[in-house]
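Backbone description:
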Amino acid sequence: MKRHAAREKALQILFQLDMNDNDPKQAVEDHPETLELDEFLMTLVQGVATHKVTIDQTIAGHLDNWSIDRIASVEKTILRIAVYEIKYEDDIPVGVSINEAVELANVYGDEKSGKFVNGVLSSIIA
């Protein structure tokens, strides 16, 4: 599985985990299209689930006149994946993480999601 596809699957799985408090590994296994478990996919899902509190604190600290509770679940999940990559995955260039997050936001969010995600992530890396 390519990394972009793994990020899309991670978005779907983490979004589901945000709605239902399941075990991350079980959530991945429950997705029939992930029968061949991808290492990068598992790293993203487990990493975001493990570091969710710290990641959310990082995001919340870079929101202007906004609270993390007001962010739509899709954008919140995309931000969590990107922040996880930026903070914990040294082999992924920051620009790649941001570009992938913006692309996911443009596909799965509304017309303003990409700009919002880009703005928050740019603030975090500044």
